[in-house]
Amino acid sequence: MDTFVPEETGSAAETTPSIATSPLFARLPADVLDSLDERQRAEIDKAARQVNWGQHPINVRLSIPTPFGRFYFVALGGQERRSRDRRLAERRRHPLHTTGNTLFFLVMATMLFLAGYNVGLWLYILFDTFG
């Protein structure tokens, strides 16, 4: 399969295949890719580059090793840009009230409580000893 290079449409940025679209074209079956003309490929490339994936003011990604394997945790935050319909559809597809989420919140609340208790205990010991 040949590497796709879009037609020149003006700036150098528009003619350079982006990292985001290379895997997109690589995952297409050869017959589908061959059926696209240059204009269609260029428009798909342009549309894929316009998606602003991963541009969040708050972007925390952790991979945590455990005895049961590695788990990942992602926290993203920023201005909401999704439409109301999309938010509703995603809420139905990914409900908040699941067993996994409940267990996660219970574990996090327990860890937060224990950390606070530990800090309070150490402060009590320090003030009792030196205060």
Descriptors:
single chain, 131 residues, alpha+beta, 2 domains, 6 helices, 2 strands, 54% helix, 14% strand
Give a written overview of the molecule.
It is a single chain. The chain folds into 2 domains: 12-50, no CATH class; 58-130, no CATH class. Helices cover 54% and strands 14% of the residues. The protein has helices at 12-15, 22-27, 30-35, 38-50, 84-93, 99-130; strands at residues 58-66, 69-77. A hairpin with a 2-residue loop joins β1 and β2 (69-77). The longest helix has 32 residues, at 99-130. It is elongated. Residues 4-15 have low confidence and may be disordered.
> Percentage of helical residues?
40-55%
The ordered H/E elements are: HHHHEEHH
If strands are numbered along the chain, what order do they take across the biggest sheet? Answer: 1-2
> What coarse outline follows from CA principal-axis ratios?
elongated
Could you tell me the strand content as a percent range? 5-15%
Please report the distance between the alpha carbons of the first and last residues: 75 Å
Q: Which structural class fits the helix and strand makeup?
A: alpha+beta
Cα radius of gyration in angstroms: 24 Å
In terms of per-residue confidence, which ranges show pLDDT below 50 for 5 or more consecutive residues? 4-15
Helical element count?
Answer: 6
Q: Give the averaged pLDDT, no decimals.
A: 83
Biggest pleated-sheet summary:
2 strands, antiparallel
